Amino acid sequence: MPSLVLLRHGESEWNRDGRFAGWRDIGLTETGVAQSRQAGAVMRAHGLEFSICYTSVLKRAIHTAWHCLDAMDRTWLPMVKSWQLNERHYGALHGLSKEATAMQFGEDQLKLWRRSFSQRPPPSPVVESEDFARDPRYAGVAVPLSESIEDTVVRARTLWEQTIRPATSSGSPVLIVAHGTSIRALIKVICGLSETQATELEPANAEPLLIELDEGKQPAMPHRMQG
Known about the structure:
Elements: E1 3-8, H1 13-17, H2 30-45, E2 52-55, H3 59-71, E3 79-81, H4 98-105, H5 107-115, H6 126-134, H7 149-167, E4 174-178, H8 180-191, H9 195-200, E5 209-212, E6 223-224
Parallel strand pairs: 1-4, 2-3, 2-4
Antiparallel strand pairs: 1-5, 5-6
């Protein structure tokens, strides 16, 4: 039976500071590096032999994958990077702390932007949108001004159906290193969760989540891999 491991990146500098990172390319903290290596050690202890690794195009996910695979002695593993695994685009909230957002817009609005399935944050300013549009990582991509969880599900579903699910047909485990919202989106798609169930998921930094894929059956919820 093929299996899939979903891994949120290790602690980033803006996780530590409580700021919305979204599509901003924020690096890992020293804690995040250590978490990533520990996640790799856990997966190695479980005997996982991945055939391929998928990540977003953001360095906090890419570096997490590097450190995980290094801890597994698998740095040679093929790695595919896709913007469709990016964190959701937080628009004008990029860089703001949760506290500053609550002070400016109110606690209720903050909760709505964070946990509503279809509510988008306010759009990015023009300068930031132009920067994303010029970034070669997004060549040919209709870069959003902001995204809801639902928007993230749509792009994650496309990548899952067209690229990742076919890769699981070999029977070898597949590793996906991404972000809180894109992990949430993939679990919704793969496990058939409701909108409410998806918004309530809280993937922890660098905690491997294992999904068993049984052909013809709805996968059960992922379970946390213990060290």
